[in-house]
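Schema walk-through. Below, the input block comes first and the output block second. Nothing else is stored per chain. Lengths vary across the set, and this one has 95 residues.
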Amino acid sequence: MSRSNNLLPEAEMPKDFEELKRELLQSDEEYRQLATRHHDLDEQIHDLAARHYLTEPEQLEEVRLKKVKLHLKDQMESILRRHRMEVGASQPTRH
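--- output ---
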């Protein structure tokens, strides 16, 4: 059996992924806090990017914010993967 037989069709993956994110925003406090902080950083980065000129300290702050935001995203993805594995382990496998 090929690996592709074990995967959901591509059209279903984004819906399921978005549904899982919505569920975690409701049920997982850690995920919700990470998502809120990620959103706040995104707004700060957007505000900096909208300026015509950034001073050197502002440029450094923009880079720092992007790194923190990426780290938060990695943490959120880890929670998503862990949750998908837990849900997948509790469902019967189809053959």
